[in-house]
């Protein structure tokens, strides 16, 4: 036996086994009489890495999900990441600047394609970190806020709220970013 414990050698192998066997997936899907318990991960931004706040909240969610799994509840911990529009735009624009280009040089469609390319290359950092922590969401259901189904749902809700008079367009002071040419919160 080794004198020191090296977790990487063991944890990654076991995590893969748990995932392959579907241990993180709902076990009683379609059974109406089984209590359901679901948590949606408040999606961290695709542009970054996990910080202590993420680790803290994800550990609490993981403990709750595992508790309900052990009780026999039909559990789902839905993972996902957020597009972080302005932050992502800034990262991609910095890359373009290093190439001597702007987003306007590319045009809207090519710029959006470039953003998707960057997300594909860099977007897995957070999910790799969650896996490394041993978090147990159902990775087969991982979503991204710009996925077509989610974007369509957001549009439907905003249109419905607008039609019901619950949101409206008006003249208001906004925090306008003169570089990005957009309002920021």
Mean pLDDT: 88
Number of E strands: 6
Order of SSEs, N→C?
Answer: HEHEEHHHHEHEE
Distance between the termini: 55 Å
**What are the segments in which pLDDT stays under 50 over at least 5 consecutive residues?**
none
Largest sheet: 2 strands, parallel
Strand content: 5-15%
Helix content: 40-55%
Descriptive key words:
185 residues, mainly alpha, two-stranded parallel ribbon, two-stranded parallel sheet, 7 helices, globular
Brief summary of the model shown:
50% of the residues lie in helices and 11% in strands.
Detailed description of the structure:
The chain contains 7 helices and 6 strands, in the order αβαββααααβαββ. By secondary structure, it is mainly α. The strands form 3 sheets. Strands 1-2 form a two-stranded parallel ribbon. Strand 5 and strand 6 (182-184) form a beta hairpin.
Give the SSE map.
Elements: H1 7-20, E1 36-40, H2 52-71, E2 74-78, E3 80-81, H3 85-98, H4 103-106, H5 108-122, H6 125-133, E4 143-144, H7 148-163, E5 175-177, E6 182-184
Parallel strand pairs: 1-2, 3-4
Antiparallel strand pairs: 5-6
